[in-house]
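Design job #97: recover the sequence.
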């Protein structure tokens, strides 16, 4: 199995190949939030890139989660906190979702052969899924406005380690080697390691640092959000 890691969406054209399995990773916070939605019974997630599109869905009566610059958008039902999407509200419903970076990265990769959402919340379920069917996997880090986020890279390192622990030979790249080296430094206490990071500071500035601790917990869910190219919706992979 080949594993590669694209550290920023801006570099994706140089990392993507045909027949790739792409894993979109936005550790803080979109990936964990999308996992929480499906874990809490949402029937599907409709991701949109623009606020305008999200507003149209809202006027059409959909439940909408919308965030920009880590803040909930005023017209939306929810922001980008995994705690916003409670089972009693989202179970059985389709949720429309737009964020600053996570849903943009998803939009870029939507014509991939296979497209999953990954993060620490579902790392084991994701590894099992990838071990089932993937020859070549690219971890696409959402970053922040095309800038590198260290937490997304750390996930890439943890995931590479998880795959090799499961006996998968992960012939990687320098990006994967960097991610694995970083993960060795951070794995004992990722939250402490990330406290100086750009996005953690942004979450603090907006009073949502509590989400960060949750987003770094491993295997809080067993769902793997999987993109369906026909109807452009994310559902829990079978
Ligand atoms: C994003 O999609 O950029 C992030 O998840 C933003 C956030 O943490 O709200």
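Job complete. Output follows.
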């Amino acid at each position: 199995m080949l594993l590669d890691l694209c550290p920023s969406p801006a570099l994706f054209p140089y990392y993507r190949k045909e027949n790739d399995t792409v894993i979109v990773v936005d550790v803080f916070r979109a990936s964990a939030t999308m996992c929480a939605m499906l874990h809490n019974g949402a029937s599907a997630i409709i991701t949109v890139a623009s606020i305008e599109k999200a507003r149209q869905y809202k006027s059409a009566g959909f439940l909408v989660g919308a965030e920009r610059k880590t803040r909930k958008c005023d017209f939306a039902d929810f922001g980008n906190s995994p705690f916003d999407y409670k089972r009693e509200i989202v179970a059985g419903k389709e949720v429309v979702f737009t964020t600053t970076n996570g849903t943009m990265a998803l939009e870029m990769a939507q014509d991939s052969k296979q497209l999953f959402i990954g993060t620490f919340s579902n790392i084991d379920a994701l590894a099992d899924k990838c071990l089932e069917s993937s020859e070549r996997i690219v971890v696409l880090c959402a970053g922040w406005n095309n800038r590198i986020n260290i937490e997304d890279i750390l996930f890439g390192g943890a995931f590479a380690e998880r795959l090799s622990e499961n006996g998968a030979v992960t012939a990687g790249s320098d990006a994967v080697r960097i991610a694995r080296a970083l993960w060795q430094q951070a794995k004992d206490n990722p939250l402490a390691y990330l406290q100086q990071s750009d996005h953690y500071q942004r979450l603090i500035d907006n009073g949502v640092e509590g989400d960060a601790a949750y987003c770094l917990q491993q295997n809080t869910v067993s769902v793997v959000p999987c993109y369906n190219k026909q109807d452009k919706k994310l559902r829990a992979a079978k």
